[in-house]
Design brief:
The complex is a heterodimer of chains A (156) and B (152). With 156 residues, chain A is mainly alpha-helical. Chain A is 63% helix and 5% strand. Chain B has a five-stranded mixed sheet, sandwiched between helices. Classes of the chains: A mainly alpha (156), B alpha+beta (152).
């Protein structure tokens, strides 16, 4: 599954806010981190605010902050603001979809869509934060395993 | 997260727990299945049930949840691993860490039995329990469940 650019940006942003829910982030900070224009990101953040996931904070030190429940909001809740992850049966929009081949293909594609939706609907922001922590730890473990090998190579 | 109810202990199920287990399951699924649960109890409880675990979360003498699983050897071509096939917590005691305690307890049993992988299978629209297992760190397994209607 490939997400549209705005959807990916929304997920990155929401997870940045979720990692530090008490902090207000200006859009420019996240835009710089992910290499997009602040103007583009502002539109994405505004959509998240309209959906009740973020709240804009005005004044000095303002920006946005998260106002949703980390243990309730799932990836699909964010994605569906920007796109439909999978189309309903028989709505692929190609001319062959009403043929036997098209219908059979539709059954298979629908299986994939169901699995995709089930996965995205079962992963909350809190779960993603734990997954990110494990990824960080795995990265650190890999780095620490590499370091002694380099040292022993020098010693040799 | 709610505070856990006082003094929750996870222990092996006893015959006297079965009515509460059946009631919790019936409250959640809307379908009482007494004969099924009696059969599960006979197969999964008591001494000598090697690799089979039927555990309950007990709070001040009341069963608040349960978990059942076993170690399966070489099923689906997989090396021995633990399978959880039932877990439930009384709805008013959810989001208090009881499910986490139950899963941790059965995983401890699996570890003692020498297996270091735990699996489960769920309906893909069972978002609540899917989210729970995801929150515990479970990821998609390298298996695809398949089914078909058997023609009469």
């Amino acid at each position: 599954m490939k997400l549209q650019k705005n959807t990916s940006l929304a997920l990155y942003s929401v997870l940045e806010f979720a990692a530090d829910p008490t902090r207000h982030f200006p859009a420019t900070e996240i835009a710089a981190k992910y290499g997009v224009s602040a103007h583009h990101l502002a539109k994405v953040l505004a959509a998240l605010a309209r959906a009740g996931i973020l709240e804009s904070v005005r004044g000095v030190g303002g920006g946005y902050r998260l106002v949703c429940n980390l243990r309730r909001l799932t990836l699909i809740d964010v994605i569906q603001i920007f796109e439909d992850p999978g189309l309903p049966d028989g709505e692929r929009g190609d001319s062959g979809e009403s043929t036997p081949v098209g219908r059979a293909l539709g059954v298979v594609l629908s299986e994939i869509d169901q699995m995709t939706k089930a996965t995205l609907a079962s992963i909350t922001l809190a779960t993603m934060l734990r997954l990110m922590a494990r990824q960080r730890k795995a990265g650190q473990d890999r780095a620490s395993r590499r370091r002694p090998r380099r040292a022993s190579a020098r010693n040799a | 997260m709610r505070q856990p109810p006082e003094a929750v202990a996870v222990r092996p199920a006893r015959r006297g727990d079965l009515d509460r287990v059946i009631a919790i399951d019936a409250a959640v699924t809307g379908l009482p299945k007494r004969s099924y649960w009696l059969s599960v109890y006979r197969r999964y409880s008591g001494a000598g049930r090697v690799g089979r675990y039927f555990l309950v979360a007990d709070s001040v003498g009341e069963v608040r949840g349960f978990i059942i699983g076993d170690v399966r050897d070489w099923e689906f071509g997989s090396p021995p691993c633990g399978w959880v096939f039932a877990i439930d917590v009384e709805p008013r005691f959810r989001v208090a860490g009881i499910g986490t305690r139950l899963l941790a307890a059965i995983c401890a049993n699996f570890r003692r039995a020498g297996v270091f992988k735990v699996r489960t299978i769920l309906a893909h629209d069972n978002t609540l329990i899917l989210s729970f297992f995801r929150s515990q760190g479970m990821m998609a397994a390298p298996f695809i469940p398949l089914e078909m209607d058997i023609e009469v």
